[in-house]
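Our platform keeps sequence and structure together, in a single record for each protein. Such a record has a labelled line for the sequence and another for the backbone structure tokens. Nothing more is needed to write down the fold, since each code stands for a local backbone conformation. For reference, a complete record is included directly beneath this paragraph:
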Amino acid sequence: MMTRPENVLKFCPKCGSSAFHFEGERSFLCNSCKFHFFINGSAAVAALIENEKDELLLTVRAFHPNKGMLDLPGGFVDPNESAEDALNREIKEELNLDIKEAHYLGSFPNQYVYSGYTVYTCDLAFRCKVQGWNQVHIHDDISDIQFVNKENIDWNAIGAESIKKIIKAHWNM
């Protein structure tokens, strides 16, 4: 795949040398300055939020990757931020909702292409309860929301494989 790091990264980020070589599955080594660059997964959070009808809230992505497809609310964990803080921040930013309870479900590896580069993530899923729905307002990188249940979910409309796996784990499918 042309977007994988070994096909995109051509120069050492430390010294700029083109003597920057892929060392295998997860790292590069610069032959000039000996900088060893590792490809690590980025942490991301995903919230499973159900309404009083036990329907799951899904968002519609406003931007690429997977623009127009369904997703769970959430996003990347910022540097020096806990997953729990990122979860609260992302849900507030995207939906203007406050989380009153969050319980960790599990982690799910993912990869997607952004700006012509494959980004590897470890999606941390949380089952959440919110303080109320009367303040919900769509912001940030979502264009709409939908509520779905097991019977009416369109699996083909969900953009990321990890999100499908998270939802299936949530519903014990």
Summary: DSSP finds three helices and ten strands in the chain. The chain has two domains: 5-38, 42-170. Strands lie at 20-22, 27-30, 36-38, 42-49, 56-61, 70-71, 74-76, 99-114, 117-130, 142-148.
